Give the backbone structure.
Amino acid sequence: MQDYDKLKNEVLIKIKEANSLDDLENLRVQVLGKKGSITSLMKQLGSLEPDKRREVGQILNSLQKNIIESIDNKKSSLEETYLNKKLKNEALDITLPTRPENIGRIHPLSKTMDEVISIFAQMGFTVAEGPDIESDFYNFTALNIPQEHPARQEHDTFYFNEDENGERKVLRTHTSPVQIRTMEKLKPPLRVIVPGRTYRSDHDATHSPMFHQCEGLVIGDKLNMSHLKGCLIDFCRIFFGVDDLPVRFRPSYFPFTEPSAEVDIGCSRKSGELIIGEGDEWLEILGSGMVNPRVLQNCGLDPNEHQGFAFGMGLERVAMLKYGIPDLRPFFDSDLRWMKHYGFFPFEQTSIHQG
Ligand code: PHE
């Protein structure tokens, strides 16, 4: 007679030792498959005496049950081991600190331009634009700067060669030509600002051959110098963040405005340090004036019906003053060290790694 206990122990040890799902499956076929050892023992039951058959049948049944159970258990444990190994190998370590990546900076000029635009936007201005390459008419003549006018020399203009019509285009020397373009296109009342590139042949610590201005133009039907003053005083105080900033209007001359005024803000320059809003010195930051009736006429507007005011400022200049940048030339050098020093973070949070 078979030693069932021995058989059972042998099989259970093999199950225990199986170390892959494949091995375990092979073992199952060997024992419980069609030609498996237990299956063939079961098959032999028919040839036994009825009493013996019952006895051996019971033993074999419980043996089979036992083996099936331990195969199932072993299978679950092998599957679990396999899964854990897989999870471990494929795990992502999200606890790593961020790499010290460089965060881009906002150029002080872009920052300044955004600030200027948003202040005027709150006063109801919209943004207008015009071409960098201008005709002599828009850059000078329509602005009441005829040929031979001394202002033409002061502008250090970059001229193009004559075109086929004998016309010499210019790189616009100011954003004022967009005043004309706007009045030709839009009907009053209107309020626009014109931020943009301008060009003059000049290069030193405070002048660059390419620079930026922001023009402003307001046309209505009952506008006077006090509107100009109120608008620009508000702008200066908001822009420089000084509520009681002294603002002075100094008589000046521009061919396209009459009367004209240069706008200065109060400051002090004690021991080389510039403090805006304190002291008894003045800094010029804007040109302005009431639009010259001749300019209105050049744009087809009747000066008896419409008046307005205009102003223009150098954006690099106000950026340098507001942010304490002493030299204009590096503005356009794309030097990352300069950008890291003077640039602005695009996000408010300071907790992010500052590379
Ligand atoms: N266009 C003038 C300049 O470039 C500035 C200005 C604009 C003055 C509008 C008065 C009115 O200096």
Observations:
- The chain has two domains: 2-89, 108-342.
- The chain has twelve helices and eleven strands.
- Residues 2-89 form one domain.
